[in-house]
Amino acid sequence: MEVERVQNIAALSLNSNTIPVDFIRPETEQPAITTFHGNVPDIPTIDLSDPDQHNLVKLIAEASQEWGMFQVINHGIPNDLISKLQSVGKEFFQLPQEEKEKYAKPPDSQSYEGYGTKLQKDAQGKKAWVDHLFHKIWPPSSINYKFWPQNPPSYRETNEEYAKQMRGVADKLFTLLSLGLGLEGNVMKEAVGGEEVEYRLKINYYPACPRPDLALGVTPHTDLSALTILVPNEVPGLQVLKDDHWIDAKYIPNALIVHIGDQIEILSNGRYKSVLHRTTVDKERTRMSWPVFLEPPAEWVIGPLPQLVTQDNPPKYKAKKFKDFTYCKLNKLPQ
Fold it and tell me: Of the ranges 122-136, 210-224, 257-271, which one carries the lowest mean pLDDT score?
């Protein structure tokens, strides 16, 4: 059965003021009704080049506890590399449909890798206004190049370089998050898999939508990952739930948006919060984003760090293999 791509549905809907009913969210989720426009604080922005490490640790710990999300600037990834990453991803989605379908996720695949539409099951039977390309970028032993586009020709080189640069940022963040919990700097990275941590890149493609007031690009969710590190394009859309309000993330050129994922919430025994977030879409412009999900290997067991568990602060989560946590979450089963 051929999967209908949102990019094609969007092209057919361009000249109308309607979208297929499958994409219309219930009123409790419609962005026009639920986005908060009052006076709200901005998601924290943190300068990773701050020489005062004590201050940096404090800022990141506070943002991770209060928001579960923050933006980082002066992170060390060259601006021109971020531009190239965006350029080759955009070029892939501009290819003819039959070319993109060469990288489609096989229908019977248990993996998430490949070009596709809609990952999550929706309780209301509704669809999200997004297509995606998903593949691992690190470690080299985990990469399946059949899901890496050969067009544009610079796609592979750009993504390999981005993976190398991303590892430096991730290692720094893991260290700062560990120190923020009063632990040795290496604890958090080791607890999520050490050198075996998998880096999974997803390109989200949210075409222009005639009714952005009714649709969502991604429905509200927390990430399965330990950390998610994301590059957006210039079209806003990412929203975070804070104090029961959906708040827009400001676009800061060349900043990285960092989400605390479920695994770090578990390891920190709830001190750091996995952020509930969603994505809106735009009437005129295509929104794109490039999240990298940092995840433990499938068999890795994640539970609250023993250093953080005491008689007065017992474990709030069960320890379990990452693959089992993933299965329960994707199938909406209790953890």
Answer: 122-136
**Residue 161 pLDDT level (bands cut at 50, 70, 90):** very high
In the chain, helix, strand, coil percent, each to 5? 30, 20, 45
Q: Which of 84, 105, 189, 202 is catalytic?
A: 202
Of the chain, the end-to-end C-alpha distance in Å amounts to 33
Is the pTM value of this prediction over 0.85? yes
Q: Look up 312 and say whether it is catalytic.
A: no
Q: What is the pLDDT of residues 217-240, one digit of tens each?
A: 999 999 999 999 999 999 999 999
Instruction: Tell me 147's DSSP state.
Output: G
Q: What secondary structure does DSSP assign to 246-269, as a single string?
A: EEEPPP-TT-EEEEE-HHHHHHTT
- Catalytic pick among 90, 126, 221, 320: 221
221 catalytic? Reply is yes
* Rounded distance between C-alpha atoms, residue 5 and residue 253, angstroms: 29
132 is catalytic: no
Half-sphere exposure of 240 (CA within 13 A, CB side): 25
**Considering 84, 135, 223, 259, which one is annotated as catalytic?**
223
Q: How many CB atoms lie within 10 A of CB 9?
A: 19
